[in-house]
Amino acid sequence: MLSQLRTIRRMHALGVMGMNCRNVDYISRYNERKLYPLVDDKLKTKLLAEEYGVSTPTLRFVVSEQHEVDSTQAKLEQLDNFVLKPAQGSGGKGILVVSAREGSEFIKNSGVRIEFSDLRRHMTNILAGLYSLGGTSDRVIVEDVIAFDESFTNFSFEGVPDIRVIAFRGYPVMAMMRLATHASDGKANLHQGAVGVGLAIDSGACLNAVQYNRPITEHPDTGYNLKEIKVPNWREILMLAARCHDMTGLGYLGTDVVLDKNAGPQLLELNARPGLAIQIANGTGLLPRLRHVEGLPDSRRWSASQRVDYVMRQFRQAEQVPAE
């Protein structure tokens, strides 16, 4: 009991935000329900991003009906690599990445070889709503695979890492990188075993790292020191997150970004209900930064560039978890 009280006091001291506070004070207050479809449907997000000039992986084609599935074989066999994913999926569910092809076989990031029959079954499941929010019928998005940035070669295993940025009222307030592992099957999903790395808002450098919510210092598969991580193109990544607020009108927004070695930062997807694990990865809470931003000028009065410059100055000092 004493240990639990100590933990609660420690969390309050760090400004850790809980689920109820997030839902009531921030999501409900700052995110209009009518805007949710812009981010819950990844196809709508991608088309909106193209309209606003926000870079995203190239869309190859969309499968909307079951009778279209068989006709995709010829299209897929023309691609050396691609991503299949549900338009309305969540939590990384239903995403299948093919990194290479040999003859009739498609090779996943993990090295597993599959046939078109496996892809057909996966697309059928997507269309049936197996991975979608609420189990409703869905569409299949086929898009390009991100070209792996060599700066992360030693820090991700069998998959491309992504960066989650929480933007509040258009101000990027907290960020983390999610690194794929063998346990996560090459996916940057923390619940499946990916590594979460808290990133300094002013520099993109590693602050703290966790796997399964436990602190680590080295990547579990590559053995490399995670403290060496410093994300390139950092200001450009924060600018993308700030612009996504302007693009959608959502006040509390999770922006998922991937870094392509040729095209630079690319918007992967948006989330109107971003999770709270980013606080664990950073070793500090969101509340102090959110409350600070609530006292700032409305985002419409400052440009995305001004907002990014402000947070890079204001949140320069990273709050670390105090020792027990």
Task: Please count the beta strands (DSSP E, at least 2 residues each).
Answer: 13
The CATH superfamily of the largest domain turns out to be ATP-grasp fold, B domain
The CATH topology of the largest domain is given as D-amino Acid Aminotransferase, Chain A, domain 1
Major pleated sheet = 7 strands, antiparallel
Helix content: 25-40%
Class of secondary structure makeup: alpha+beta
Number of helices: 10
What is the CATH architecture assignment of the largest domain? 2-Layer Sandwich
N- to C-terminal distance: 16 Å
H and E string:
HHHHEHEEEEHEEEEEEHEEHHH
Biggest sheet strand order reads 11-10-9-8-7-12-13
The proportion of residues in beta strands is: 15-25%
Radius of gyration: 20 Å
Inertia-based shape: globular
Low-confidence segments, ≥5 residues, pLDDT <50? Answer: 1-5, 318-324
Give a brief description:
The protein is of the alpha+beta class and 324 residues long. It is 30% helix and 23% strand. A hairpin with a 4-residue loop joins strand 4 (105-108) and strand 5.
